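This entry is listed below:
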Amino acid sequence: MLTIFTTPKPFIGHDGIIQTNAIRSWKFLRPECEIILFGNDKGTAETASELGVQHVPDLECNKFGTPLISSMFKIAQEKASHPLLCYINADIILLSDFLPAIESISGGKFLIVGQRWDLDLSELVDFKNAEWESKIRACLADNGTLHSKSGMDYFVYPKGLFDNLPPFAIGRTAWDCWLIYRAREQKAAVIDATQVVTAIHQNHDYSHNTHGYDGIWEGPEAQKNMELAGHGNHLFTLEHATWMLTPGGIRRALSPRDLYFHLDAATVLCSPLKFLRKPMKLLTRFLIRIRSVLGIGTE
């Protein structure tokens, strides 16, 4: 049914723990998914062998040695045994609600995305315990935090949706939001599955990057990603989803807030409306500031 692919960081210390937790959780999905680990960082080959998943060591990288999204998505599509693919960050635990959500979407061009839940986990999950999922859900209820709509860590889509991607650097800013833009540009349904998919991001530091947090968001690779994303003009978030997947089924995103962001997207996607882009950006910033002053949540 589904091919899941990712490129892990080195399996060292805390990163090794949370990535092992994530990949093991994917192994518990039913029906069973095909899993591909990309890259040759420390421990990747060994983990793939231990868990019985595919390993593709060679990816095209930029001059800093960072794997490129374009290379990974292309190879994943070539190797995938299933018509649906899912890129996911290697620190995301998936639960039993994931595949039923995907199965509820039938045919056509679509992209399924959703907000993640942030949670501190410092130890290996005991997957031999039949109650492992209920224990994590209880922990999440007590200590988890729903991330903003700009944080997207999984992308489910049919083959062919993301052909010929720009050479974005993985693990740096902008490329994930650009995927939403590309899907909207191709008139695919962008489906927000936050209400029905529990994607758990295990919190971590940024020591894997030479320049830490700033390197992810402001370094030369981040700047290059922003350039590839139209200098930041082609960046959408979950606010720009066109459909919502709810416990009661799928529905169009038609709330007043949704309609505002439909107009915002139209100023990018429709040439005759591009003159409205700058005013819309200024209005959005103004509304965010007003909400902040009034103490109104952003979600």
